[in-house]
Amino acid sequence: MTIWTLGSVNADLVFRVPHLPAPGETLAATDFSRGLGGKGANMSVAATRAGSRVEHIGAVGEDGGWMKDRLAGYGVSVTHLAEMRGPSGQAVIELDDEGENRIIILPGTNRRIDIMGFDEILSEAEEGDWALFQNETNGLLDFAQAAKARGLPLAHAAAPFDAEAVAPLLELLDLLVMNQVEAEQLQTATGLAPEALPVRDVVITLGAKGARWIGADGDRSFEAPKVRPVDTTGAGDTFTGYLVAGLEQGLAMAEAIELAQRAAAVMVTRMGTADVIPKRDEL
């Protein structure tokens, strides 16, 4: 079985700073690194390291060959990761000594994916496969409709939050993953509380406070593992990738959430994004 991920691929440019700068402040960074990132790439790597087979659908630019090679090296299929003219996605990440971050995104080729190819790509999908996507690419509704036409369970991470992008998708989703801020933003935009959304399963991540699952069996809370974070970048993507992988592998929702929480807890103890997502045997 396979998880078909429509998602961004970014070069993560990480600047370590003593604190997040205030408006107008010039601040000297204490370290710099370049790594593989993007919410889509992070989720694909996480799902792969959880033990699932992943087909990544997306695009990189002329400068993105190293990112495509690295994804392939991590075991993610890049058959449907196109190479285009222009810059790849870029993320400039400021990371402070407490593990908090601020991120600036250049979408690049992530917003130029050929949406006309979704039907053909997903025609390769089989029963038991899942489809997964988030808000850093174009073609969200087209992908959702193509996935549902194939009968695939559809999971969406509503990040970065965009009410206009998320609202048309709700009726098509089987699983919606959000953090607490995104859940509040969606409620403000739609007037619907999480328990009133037309989605079978809603999972809200609460950082160190754990997670909340709203499904057919009611509303359940999960306590987070206790760790000392050094970098929260990519933790939510790791959670989502592991969660969908667990479900694709046949775990019950509660088991999949607990697996995803362990992965995210390990992730925040590491510096970096896709390159340091933990493997399942590390949990």
Automatic annotation (TrEMBL):
Q: Which domain of life is it from?
A: Bacteria
Q: Where does ATP bind?
A: 179, 205-210, 236-237
A GO molecular function term, named singly, is: ATP binding
> Would I find Nucleotide-binding among this entry's keywords?
yes
* Record-listed substrate binding positions: 10-12, 38-42, 136, 237
Gene Ontology biological-process annotations: D-ribose catabolic process
**EC number per UniProt:** 2.7.1.15
Instruction: Give details on activation and inhibition.
Output: Activated by a monovalent cation that binds near, but not in, the active site. The most likely occupant of the site in vivo is potassium. Ion binding induces a conformational change that may alter substrate affinity.
- Which residues belong to any copy of the Carbohydrate kinase PfkB domain? 5-279
Cofactor mode of binding and number, as noted = Requires a divalent cation, most likely magnesium in vivo, as an electrophilic catalyst to aid phosphoryl group transfer. It is the chelate of the metal and the nucleotide that is the actual substrate.
- Which top EC class is named for this enzyme in its record? transferase
According to its UniProt record, which residues of this chain constitute the active site?
237
This protein's GO CC annotations: cytoplasm
For this UniProt record, give its keywords in alphabetical order, as a comma-separated list. ATP-binding, Carbohydrate metabolism, Cytoplasm, Kinase, Magnesium, Metal-binding, Nucleotide-binding, Potassium, Transferase
**What InterPro entries would the database entry show?**
PfkB_dom, Ribo/fructo_kinase, Ribokinase, Ribokinase-like
- Sites binding K(+) sit at 231, 233, 267, 270, 272
Pathway named in the protein's UniProt entry: Carbohydrate metabolism; D-ribose degradation; D-ribose 5-phosphate from beta-D-ribopyranose: step 2/2
Instruction: Note the SUPFAM superfamilies from the entry.
Output: Ribokinase-like
- Tell me the function of this protein: Catalyzes the phosphorylation of ribose at O-5 in a reaction requiring ATP and magnesium. The resulting D-ribose-5-phosphate can then be used either for sythesis of nucleotides, histidine, and tryptophan, or as a component of the pentose phosphate pathway.
- HAMAP family under this entry? Ribokinase
Q: Which family does it belong to?
A: Belongs to the carbohydrate kinase PfkB family. Ribokinase subfamily.
Record text on subunit structure and interactions: Homodimer.
Q: What is this protein called?
A: Ribokinase
Gene encoding this polypeptide?
Answer: rbsK
